[in-house]
Amino acid sequence: MASNSTQTIVIPDLGGAEGVEVIEIAVAVGDTIAVDDELIVLESDKASMEIPSSHAGTITAIHVTVGDQVNEGDALVELELTEAAETGKEESEEQAEPSSPKQQETAPEQSAASMETVETVEVKVPDIGSESAEVIEVLIQAGDKIVAEDSLIALESDKASMEVPAPVSGTVLEVQVKVGDTLSEGDVIAVVEAHLSAQPETQTVSETQKPPLSSEPQPKQATNKPVAAQSTTVMPATDLKEVYAGPAVRKLARELGVDLTQVRATGPRGRLQKDDLHNYIREALSKAREGGGAIPAVPAVDFAKFGEVELVPMSKIDKVTAANMQRSWLNVPHVTQFDEADLSVVDQLRNDWKAQAEQREIKLTPLAFLLKVCALALLEHPKLNSSLHHDQEHFVRKKYVHIGMAVDTPKGLMVPVIRDVDKKDLWQLAQEVIELAEKARQGKLKPADMQGGCFSISSLGAIGGQGFTPVVNTPEVAILGVSKATIKPLWNGEAFMPGKMLPLSLSYDHRVINGADAGRFLTFIVDALADIASFEKDG
Q1: Deepest of 111, 332, 434, 490, by most Cβ within 10 A of its Cβ?
Q2: For residue 386, how many other CB atoms are within 10 A of its CB?
Q3: What is the pLDDT of residue 18?
């Protein structure tokens, strides 16, 4: 067998429809595609359908253009097949061949003794060409008068969107589905009090009278209801029910979080296309950069008219810090909780281990103790060792404990990350604090040294202050602010005794952490610092 051959992909069975319009071409010459990759989108007045490829290979020619009317068997694209694709050719063709719409069951027989009878009919989901589909619109409600072929609901699967029309005329008694439901063939949509004609030629609602309801495009039929696809406007729709878009565009909009009612359409007859979504996002980002978003830009001020000024360029670190802080503040709902920790035991241990520290040539600072305690707290309260996933539907729970420490450098604020804090003793942490702080001040930190943090500590102890509200370093969900320790009187149950108290402030992302979570976490830190010997026994 030759290593390559050419295959012509043709329009598959369209359920008897003729002259169905090409509304979107999803590939270009030179594209390499796999089996089931989307080639084009077709549309009739009742359904839109994505045509997948029955073979894998490289596209060498495209035989249709947007706006063409196509029929079953028309040439679609030319593919240069790989050997693997040729081997599976026969199987792929069988799998890709769409089935014809399933025949409808006939409605209950009517009595010939009268011109019209009234019966209660359960309207069910017909053959939709797939195992299940999601309800994206419900177009009726109890009490509505409907006529045959009026749309009842709109369904959407991975490959097609379609409206399900009524097979009978009458009054809607009950609607048994809602938006978001997943339906399959045979599921009940609604209960209708149907007005059925008893004339011999219309005694049953036959399959020739019922409109085809599969996901394949169908020929246009006359209807009393307006069809969104016939709209010529390109302005955004005012209601989601009026949006004219296919399944691929709707899926992309959901992934991007775009409200389709805000998007201007440029496709045929006011149809939304993928490019319309991309243009909408580009315009939104451009407006945001220009200060045209929801937050008004700060007006420019000529400070020179008030006195002498000097224009000092921002360093790269200053610019990055400003952007990160603004992004965090605008996106994260901040809450800060405050407490104080007694450092008496920590100071006693540092004094007891002074000789050992000198022998190791390591300065044992309070930050090493804070790092160790915070790591233990993160293990005890894993919710604070997580991040909000970008899909806004999951938490990312981290199985590692990496903690960032804010360092003030001549070039600006930098946050190197100490990895696996929970697995290191106090001496290792103290040594790493010194080394990373020095690298930061010398400008020798690499990007990897500042990535992967789970939690941050920002200490102003050497500078002063009784407290502050640090900004969460998103995508982390919490940061601990440390201020200057002071001597305060502490009541021991019998008398006031001097104690060295360290002010702590925990800022957290309220989308992930609630007040009780933060309170327990901060209390754990306070208790651990007050009794550090029982938490760190190795010394």
Answers
A1: 332
A2: 21
A3: 81
Q: How much is the CA Rg of the chain, to the nearest whole Å?
A: 34
pLDDT of residue 110: 41
Cβ neighbour number for residue 371 with a 10 Å cutoff: 25
- Residues 449, 451: Cα–Cα separation, whole Å: 6
**Shortest CA distance to 402 belongs to which of 460, 476, 505?**
476
Strands 47-52 vs 32-33: parallel, antiparallel or unpaired = unpaired
Please say whether the dihedral angle defined by the alpha carbons of residues 364, 368, 372 and 374, taken in this order, is positive or negative. positive
Cα 63 to Cα 274: distance, rounded to the nearest angstrom: 22
Question: Would you call 278 a catalytic residue per the annotation?
Answer: no
Flag whether the pTM goes above 0.85. no
Q: How many residues does the chain have?
A: 539
The SS3 assignment for 12 reads coil
In which region does residue 57 sit, left (phi positive, over 0), alpha (psi from -120 to 50) or beta (all else)? left
Task: Give me the domains of the chain, ranges plus CATH numbers.
Answer: 5-96 (2.40.50.100), 116-225 (2.40.50.100), 240-246+254-289 (no CATH), 320-535 (3.30.559.10)
Q: 361 CB contacts (<8 Å, ≥6 apart)? A: none
H/E run at residue 535: helix 532-535
Tell me the C-alpha distance between 25 and 53, whole Å.
12
Q: Kindly state the tokens that stand for 528.
A: 């651990």
Question: Are the CB atoms for 537 and 379 separated by under 8 Å?
Answer: no
Paired residues of 10 in beta bridges: 75
Tell me if 375 sits within 8 A of 367, measured CB to CB: no
Positions in the chain whose pLDDT score sits under 70: 1-4, 44-47, 82-116, 158-161, 197-241, 247, 268-269, 288-295, 534-539
User: Which pLDDT does position 2 carry in this prediction?
Assistant: 43
Q: Do residues 312 and 495 touch, judged by C-beta distance below 8 A?
A: no
Task: Please give the pLDDT value at position 46.
Answer: 61
User: Catalytic residue among 63, 195, 334, 510, which?
Assistant: 510
Query: Three-state DSSP class for 402?
Result: coil
